[in-house]
Amino acid sequence: MAKPGVETRTRSSVITARAAATFEPVGRAVATARAFVRDTLQGWGHSDIVDDAVVLTSELVTNAVVHAGTAADVLCLRTDHGVRVEVADRYPEREVPLQGSAQPTAAPDRENGRGLLLCAALATRWGVEYSPARKRVWFQLDLPERPVGTRHAGPALPADLLPVADERVRVAVAQVDRSGAVTAWNDDAEHLFGYAADQVVGKQLGDLAAWPHTPGTGTGLAEALRLSRWEGSYGIRGMDGRVIPVYASHLRIRDTHGEPSTVCLLVREYERAVLQSPPRATGGDASGEGRTADPFEVFIGSPAPEDLDGLLQRTVERARDMLDGDAAFLLLATDDETELEVRATTGLPSARQRFARVPVEAGTSRYASARMPAVHEDLAAVPGAVPLLSGTGMRSVVTVPLKVEGRLTGSLGVAAEAPGRYANEEALRLQFAADRIALAVESARLGELERLRRGSLSFLVEASDLLAGTLDRDQTLALMAQMTVPTLATWCAVYTIADQSSDPYLSYVLHEDEELIDGLKELLSSVTPPDPVPAPGARVWHAPAEAAQRAALEASRRRLGEEASPLSSGIGTALATAAAVGGETVVLPLVARNRVIGMLTLGKPSDDHFRQEILELAEDLSRRAALALDNARLYSERTAISQSLQRSLLPPGLPQISGVEVDVIYRAAGEGNEVGGDFYDVFPIQDGAYGFAIGDVCGTGPEAAAVTGLARHALRLLAREGFGGPAVLERLNAAILDEGSRSRFLTLLYGELRPQEDGSAALKVVCAGHPLPLRLRQDGTVEPAAEPQPLLGVMEDLELYEESVTLEPGDVLLCVTDGVTERREGTRMLGDDGLAEVLRTCTGLTAGAVAARVLRAVERFAAEPASDDMAILTLRVPEPHRQ
């Protein structure tokens, strides 16, 4: 499908590497092209633009191989500033849909033309180039401005906006033991403050501090030295008596013997940028007016993490240390600001609380809203005031809102195990810190949402492609589960509903740990399925978690009371299964064509919760999966109906005829077909007479099958009414012509067979436009056994006659359809002569062996599969010694 070639250049041009591939217009070309672009960009180290590039490539290659119907040439070029991807097809006449043009507005559900609109939305630059033989669409994605070798970088600033420092920046390093005494003092500390190491080692660092409190806070130096990490300002009295304002960063460590100590880094106050993130210009002139300090400058004091989770986790740790709390938490608001999601905690069981949701308005009391600062001196007096802290042992708590431009974006809280720890002064300090960090948190959150949105778009493109690639119900169920686990959930279960009167049925279960699948299936089978509610969106389902808790209690009792029992081996599995289902479980309806056809159930382990963005992505996936599952159901039903009708066109079995061997081989051309335009029948008539027929209806499909059914059933009915061969076929001809425009012409060989007392068989045959039957004698001679006559379904007045043939012991009568004689290999055709040559080699074989040898000869005549239906009917009179 693809012919890739990768080449790296070292010349001085802006193109530093290239990768190219060609994709033929086949079904899997789009998915293969996406994989090629993803692997190429990740190999170049550009994972931050992979999602956009994959989405755009998918649309452009789809336009080429699906809508234009030509091969697609994909070229990836790496430049100094970004990546350029070019997609070329061989159909240059296709129109270019442009936004804002005078062209008529395209239908919103049209399948083609959206690739260029996506280019306009996602790409930095894009364009279309035409040549007489092809059209090339290209797009450019610029890389983030990031110096080589750094994971995170601030903006480039003019020289006059850079922090001012002496010619040499000196960082004093002092190490303090658990009692506050100095144990180490470096040369920069001696230069800054004038004290030699032997003058301060062993003395209290607090004795050197002129003003030991950070301005605006109540944290003293002694308290700061006991915290795990702290940053702030205070003053050091130098050797000459002057007070030197310093900015300090404290880190608490312990040595190999477990003894704690604190390492202090100190710089002059105006050089605090050495220990902090640099200020970022948000406006103003070159003089620096209008600049605002980094939001982390006062509260965090060091460069911001690259990801949102890292920023939030460090924020709660700093908040806890700043107020000397036992725990801290940070919640982010959902888009509608009605709920808050737990995103970071410290000192709390964070794994259990992560992504748990609490309402913004928790009640009617003074402290019930997250939109206002709140102080609870003792939570025991107001149970449930802070739902997040229920059962954690925390007694006092202070919470403040995170707001950006007056809009609630989150909540920050610090808690302590002792009551009465916090008052309004701590609330003001925490609010000041929250105001400084709110904008940075919101910016990082929006960045995460954008990355998630683009990743979700790529995920849904892949999911849609996979779901559209199958019409098998079981495979569709498996794909639904495999796409959700572990990407969206830890485990997944799919319930299906056969019809409106049926109950939901557990159809598929998957867990990321394969050893837990059987236990999970057993647990869910014991739970009443969720109600098939058609309302969109995810709803929480508590039954699995409750069943898991009961199973865990039962397993614990068995472990305590039956340790020596053989059943104990299954207790560990039961406990593991219960823990796997112990988190939040949500149900999403599978709605297709305004009918609930099932439910998609997603679960988390150990009291974990789903984040809102994941639920929205799962809802999008459920809509696509529901339509794919319903399409698979409709296809399965249609196939079952078609196969049932097709089977009704063939006789249920062959009769046992005394003194005559009968065998039939039938092959219908086309995938999924049991019956085509060819048919056969062998049936008893009366008084030891049997009818046999083999025919071929012109064409294929339902119309041909209708004529097949008409012919087979009419032949039986008319023959049993006592009509002879010519009369039977003339009346069948009239019935076919009565079908009008639905009629099809029919070639038919019909005969009557009567075994004789002398061991022979008497036949009366009518051949209406059908390939002539061939008779094989015992001496190996082959001859036609009938004369050709007009076919049926063309003329109204037919004059047919029957011919008599006697099969002696050892003779074979071979009847075939034109799928056998017209078997082709290039310009060669098997034909009547070739079939006769094959039949001559069948002397002495049984009827079944003759049919099998003819079929093998037909199949070996050409390498390609047969394109026409084939029917082979053989009648043989055995020799006397075989009776």
UniProtKB/TrEMBL annotation:
Enzyme Commission number(s): 3.1.3.3
Pfam families: GAF_2, GAF_3, HATPase_c_2, PAS, SpoIIE
GO molecular function: phosphatase activity
Top-level taxon of the source organism: Bacteria
Enzyme superclass (EC): hydrolase
Span of domain PAS: 167-205
Region of interest (Disordered), ranges: 276-296
GO BP terms, alphabetized: regulation of DNA-templated transcription
Stretches that traverse the bilayer: none
The entry's keywords: Hydrolase
CDD domains for this protein: HATPase_RsbW-like, PAS
Entry protein name: Phosphoserine phosphatase RsbU
Native species: Streptomyces rubrolavendulae
